[in-house]
Amino acid sequence: MKYSYTQINRLDEPISYMYTTFNGKEFLESYRIDRKCRIRRVEEAVKGGGEKVYEAATLDFLQREGWDSELFCDPSMPAVEVVGGGVFACELSQFSIVDSIDTEKLLVALLAAQFACTHDVIVKEWLDRLVQRFEVTKKVYKSYQPGLRKGEGSNTSVRLYWLLSLSLCLFFVRTKNLKYLNTLLKVNDLLSSLPQELILGHFSVRLMKTIFKLELAAVARLQFAGRGQHAAQ
Amino acid sequence: MPLNDVGLVAANTTRSSAYLQALVRNNVLPGYVLLLENSEGQMPGQLTETSAAAITELPDASLDCWSDGAFDPNTSVQAILDQYHVPYEISPSKDINDPAVVNLIAARAESVFIYSGFGGAILRQPLLTCGKRFLHVHGGYLPDFKGSTTNYYSLICNGSMGASAIFLSAEIDCGPILMRKNFPAPALRSRIDHFYDSAARAKVLVETLKRYEASNEWEFELQNNEGGETYYVIHPVLKHIAILDKELTGIK
To answer: For residue A15, what is the nearest residue in chain B, using CA coordinates?
Structure first.
């Protein structure tokens, strides 16, 4: 059984996910195989390239939240570098729903707040708006009009989908709220459906692998966890 | 006895069929039905299998909570309306927000309409302010589980399903709650979409209407339906986890 949700370019042909059919355990296995295949393809791609600026912060975050560092550490790769600079200088407080929103700046600010484990309520408010937009349109736009309803500009910037994917990963890890794992699965379906040359060069190979491996681990935990560990926080 | 002040907006979906069969069984028929028809392809909520076997008895049918689960999905809405002489007309459009549909509803004498249209449709202005109230049964326990396909999320989180009768408002799933119920995990989880979800909603609808019929008033279980979480159409991976739950975890 092929995992059908990544077989065609989902930027070109979005999928609604409504009334999907039940295909038994084989479907879950096809999903796992597909994601692992994508991870292998990413590993086999050009080594290096893509920004590393989030690597150290992501590792630190995962360790603080009690996730296995095996998700992140790869003995075959160089040690994680701590990249300095003002990349986390963007503050969430500078954004307002009554203004137009530059999506990349918003996502960068969201990640900064998430790494610092601050302002969870405000992070949720903004992330919920982005989740709503993506779930309705299956796209992430370069910018949004005031009210964050109507997207403007390009919706094909793969970097934005990676940034959203990372933000969803971190928020699911922190809250265990299925809502964010749900959207993460869809964003990662889209990323996995893209030609290799489109998804590379934005994040480092290590970070891309981590996002997919974390999603796989989260799904595996759900399948074998006891009751009551996944309620909305 | 028909409820003369209550109408029904229906479509040829398994949910509408389940509702009507439950209303017939419990003798709480609406006084009028507006039937949304679709002549082009499949709409959300319509069975894809053209020869789906009728489920006349579910393995857990003896449970009171699933007493409205034994319905025939192959019985069309129109056939039921004809058989039980329920006054109805065919809508000028399949779009509930079409001005012609809004005008038709606004002109009717009934003050409350049960809404059971095509899946995914959202009622907008001016329909919501046309002078009628719209009774909708959400497939989930409110306010905790708002949004779409919420019973799959609640199965993973709580091992249960829910249904909540509300009057629709501009904000999705935030209207005042007339009645809400929890339901145990069904025996055949792969049948949630077209059977158990409809059965749970039908159960709550019937009980809400019976309570209205007895008191001639719409009584609210929870007026303030704020808070909770809004969920979106469930990804098939999570849907499979919800359905396969018992097998994978070995929980009896």
So the answer is: B235
